[in-house]
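idk why but the lab printer keeps eating my pages so im just putting this in chat instead. protein + FE2/S2 (inorganic) cluster:
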Amino acid sequence: MNLVTNNKWIGQRTIRPDGMDKVTGRAQFAADTTMPGMIWGKVLRSPHPHARIKSIDTSKAEKLAGVKAVVTARDIVDFPIDKGAVMLGIQDMRWMCRNVMARDKALFPGHPIAAVAATTEAIATEACSLIEVDYEVLPWSIEIDDAIRPDAPILHEFNKFEGKPSNIAGRIEHKKGDLAEGFEKADVVIERTFTTRPVHQGYIEPHACLISVAPDGKTTIWSSSQGQFMVRAMTAHLTGIPQSDIRAIPAEIGGGFGGKTIVYLEPLATLLAKKSGRPVKMVMTREEVMRATGPTSGSKSTVKIGATKDGKIVAAHGTFYLQAGAFPGSPIRGAAGCSFTPYDIPNLLSEGFDVCSNRSKVAAYRAPGAPIGAYAVECVLDEVAEALKMDPLDFRLKNAAKEGTKAAHGPIFPRIGYIETLEAAKNSDHYKAPLGKLQGRGVASGFWFNAGGESSAQVNITEDGNVVVTTGHPDIGGSRAGIANICAELLGIDYRRVSVIIGDTQTIGFSNLTGGSRVLFASSMVVTQSTDKIIQTLRERAAKIWEIDPEAVKWENGAAHPVSPNAGQFEPLTLEELAEKAPAMGGPIGAGVQLNTTGADGGFGTHVCDVEVDVDLGIARVIRYTAVQDVGRAIHPGYVEGQLQGGVAQGIGWALNEEYIYTREGKVDNPGFLDYRMPVCSDLPMLDCIMVEVPNPKHPQGVKGVGEVPLVPVMAAVANAIYNALGKRFYALPMSPPKVLEVLEAPTREAAE
Amino acid sequence: MAKVHVTTTINGEPMEFLCEPGDTMLDALRGTLNLTGSKEGCASGDCGACSITLDDRLICSCLMLAVESQDHEIRTIEGMANGEKLHPLQQKFLEMAALQCGICTSGMLVASDALLKKNPDPSEEEVRFWLAGNLCRCTGYDKIVRAVMETAQELQNQEMRAQ
Ligand code: FES
Ligand code: FES
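predcted complex ->
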């Protein structure tokens, strides 16, 4: 391990390599791309939450002038349900092939039924309306309680739970010790039930792609996603085109937060392009994004925690029911596996239930599942601390996981920085500041697994002695800046001499998704190893020129130097000079590394939130917020803070306003930014960050994933703050003005002031 | 489907284009004129990613018809930098990491520029309310607000030195 300590670039707020393109409007996002001969694709979607598709007649649409191709489920590769799972990453292709286009049954309003390509968008839309579908409308359920009733309409007949057809698609558990024995020892036991609503990732850029298929089958995909390799693999699976024939080119991505880790349009556009022989562009409307792409789960959780008088948690039981939407696969692992993990609890049972219902299939959203679990656990912890008359941070400190603690999901923690986040929160000015009338303060903590996984990098030295780094992960929030900092640091050159490129699937080795807080962790590992190889080459080249041993050459400040005067007296050879001499001295200088990276460990954060409640209007406003997180090592502090602030803002939206509202017909009633109310600039205060740096010993620069933890504690921190302000506790999200008023006006309420 | 002929000025340059009567200004900019810096996040006036100015007035180009630009002056993100020289707001956004994915950035910059033209010394609250029509899902707005305020400060100082 070579932790660089005297940094020139690591830890600096450098200007990101792609920044200029993004502030001038030049950056190419997926919907910005066009091609000669391009036509437009549009999707016909089900109006029903649950219906058998008896027949589809596309003949009228096909005859409309300007229509070039129509596809339905028949054109998509089928992965039969009874043949077992075909996993691609965390996605089961049996669900994917039915999610991109309904097969037999429409399972949610917005479920694609057919797709059309035509010379204009307007003609494509008109053609969709000419497609005749004969539906047998079926009873449906949206909410968890309805979906798990014994007489609930079953979405997938083959799915059995406890021997009977069921909408419960799975259960997981994490277990430690003996629950009954643990609760026996407790002096205080508190058990509460919480519900949360589905919320959307809310990326500002709708899904979009442009795809061309040549007559020989060679396919080019420009699209916005969190992984061009995922796009290639899923499109190949669903269209039958071999992966080697598909070139997936990552466009700039306008936000994803987990929601762009699966495909919706690409397989459809590919089939339309193949059939029509023309490049096909597809762009979702905002309404389509809201109706038919993944939100995260709504949930129902029951959490019971027992502690002794002296503040030790002795037992805990959590039951987390999460909505999967139309197909199995809700993030129960995140809910059940993360929410108790900041604490060392001897007796624990944490269970997760995956529940299908007639709403769009959920997709990952920042620490999938963990914020839902943390909301319930951290609120109950607050109540336990209050019952014990303990400061909520002291209570957490007393029970905090640390090096050597065995987490319920398996690992024994190495050196982690959770306690440091609690202490930093406690010592912050924020935590000590006085509060005004109708103001309250809440704290909460959160954990996320973090991930490593496959990553590839190629580093090449240009003939003029500069550097081109290619990696395989889309840059969603500034990872290119981190990579440039690290590469420049290792080579000892100005970071502006490093250009960072996101390679397409045919030019760089396999790299897994941008997700799981893994990108800078994984990509900097392969970039570091590639750069180390290059430095080795550069030393060898200098040694050859000087006719000394390579071991007698060191690389420093962008040049080769003799290690000591007795190695010989030579003028340093700079990167530029060695690049210039390369043709005569062994050829091009470059190195590539592919790795399955490990050692990501977990990430922890602790948040402090102040709210002020307008009791007449029911509006809770966050007036001060501090996010503390162990970030391992902040390679680019500006973008690390940005991750923290962005996650907090999303959590505040989730806590206070965001939710899917349904009509009586089972349709999303607020599919736009006007009614699906995400936080705007005037809703929020400045968001303070305290970055605790406990370097990850398993990473060359000490990097830990940072992108997901910031969302985990937020809803609980806000809920705890509202309780502190009003003496009223909310057991359901969002705590929107009508709901706050309802609680305030409940007859049992003592005056809030 | 007779197309309409429109004569207008975009980023200081005279322009002519054909459009459908129902096309929005955003359609015309992104489609016919190939100025894709303005983004479509919602097409309903709720996200601000398509912000442009029409005769110095900040508007959502998704809510304006392309034909309405006839004889008016349009400014988009593409006209913000002066050749190689970035506008001070663009420079500050870069230096202060006031963007992550960058999809909202064009709209944010155009809106912030319109604010500083109207009010060269805005309070934090004024910045926040002015930018309330521009959604950003990545940054939590903190760095954006700071970048706008700092640019305003710098421009003010320069002005004072010039006097
Ligand atoms: S696209 Fe115009 S405001 Fe959203
Ligand atoms: S930077 Fe991504 S939406 Fe603003």
